[in-house]
């Protein structure tokens, strides 16, 4: 999960225009819920084509929660951050129906993050075989929405005072609450505040099942591939340190190409990029320092390209 600036994509017209599907639906819903005994309402405005397109543009076709790239192979669930039809564990709450077509309450989600399922969950220290042999547990958001503050029960309620435990990556920076420890598998854990786990990180991981088996395996494959590229970049730079002339240029070219691939894997629109950034940032920073030292050492030699020709490598490591 990574921070996303919602302001960089314009809200869908169908949800904001005075005569759009969203405002019209909200008006009908207000009338419907005046009856305190009314059953659920059939919401549909959030399913508009322009809503799905805005979600894709904002998150690059990824799930807002787990960063899986799923839009090419399966439909995106337009997820209501605050659930529209009820809140699990609170029988009297009819859901945040007044936010059902509110752009700020919508996120793109994969089915496994959004829906309740029985899945195997990896724990720190486990190997892949241990996870496969474990018992499934029920995870997925569904209508879960735990808070630390006072619950809003209607349009006049103060949602800002709720202090939700589930991280919305457009409102709260996940990096401040989630950690990526070195392990056999790519697991995410809550950051620790002294001896206590961060409550937002803990709740988000547990609710969404961010350490579910298939997701951990996918992240681990990406991390392993990145580690191979990183080793190649380190080798190219080590070799370059003892070369000169054409051989030096060739080694640095390979270094540039490898760093460009790593930079691409860490780009915001790529799967699991927050995890890769967390794992690779320090080593990439070390490589940049080594590269700059080598360039300074050889700057006077004619065989070393001008700084502008090496910008690709620096851009990759600064990403």
Structure description:
- It comes from Lysobacter firmicutimachus.
- This is HNH endonuclease.
- Residues 1-21, 300-319 are annotated as: Disordered.
- With 319 residues, the chain is mainly alpha-helical.
- The protein contains 10 helices and 8 strands.
- The chain has 2 domains: 6-211, no CATH class; 216-318.
- It has helices at 13-16, 21-33, 49-59, 111-114, 128-133, 199-208, 213-240, 245-265, 273-298, 311-318, and strands at residues 77-80, 106-109, 117-119, 137-139, 178-179, 189-190, 192-193, 196-197.
- The strands form 4 sheets. A two-stranded antiparallel sheet has the order 1-2. The protein has a two-stranded antiparallel sheet with strand order 3-4. A two-stranded antiparallel ribbon has the order 5-6.
- α9 packs antiparallel against α10.
- The two termini are 17 Å apart.
């Amino acid at each position: 999960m990574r921070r996303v600036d919602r302001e960089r994509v314009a809200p869908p017209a169908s949800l904001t225009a005075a005569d759009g599907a969203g405002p019209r639906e909200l008006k009908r819903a207000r009338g419907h819920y005046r009856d305190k005994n009314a059953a659920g309402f059939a919401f549909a405005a959030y399913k508009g084509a322009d809503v799905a397109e805005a979600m894709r543009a904002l998150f690059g076709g990824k799930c807002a929660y787990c960063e899986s790239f799923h839009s090419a192979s399966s439909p995106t669930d337009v997820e209501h951050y605050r659930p529209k039809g009820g809140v699990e564990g609170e029988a009297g709450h009819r859901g945040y129906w007044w936010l059902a077509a509110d752009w700020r309450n919508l996120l793109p989600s994969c089915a496994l993050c959004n829906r309740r399922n029985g899945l195997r969950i990896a724990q720190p220290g486990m190997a892949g075989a241990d996870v496969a042999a474990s018992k499934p547990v029920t995870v997925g958001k569904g209508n879960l929405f735990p808070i630390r503050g006072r619950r809003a029960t209607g349009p006049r309620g103060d949602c800002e005072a709720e202090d939700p435990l589930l991280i919305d990556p457009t409102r709260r920076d996940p990096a401040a609450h989630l950690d990526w420890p070195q392990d056999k598998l790519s697991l995410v854990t809550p950051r620790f505040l002294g001896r206590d786990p961060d409550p937002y990180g803990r709740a988000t991981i547990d609710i969404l099942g961010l350490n579910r088996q298939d997701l951990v395996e996918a992240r681990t494959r990406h991390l392993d591939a990145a580690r191979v590229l990183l080793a190649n970049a380190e080798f190219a730079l080590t070799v370059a340190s003892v070369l000169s002339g054409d051989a030096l240029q060739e080694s640095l070219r390979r270094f540039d190409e490898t760093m460009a691939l790593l930079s691409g894997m860490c780009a915001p629109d790529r799967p699991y990029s927050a995890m890769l950034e967390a794992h690779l940032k320090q080593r990439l920073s070390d490589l940049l320092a080594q590269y700059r030292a080598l360039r300074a050492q050889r700057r006077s030699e004619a065989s070393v390209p001008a700084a502008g020709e090496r910008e690709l490598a620096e851009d990759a490591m600064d990403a």
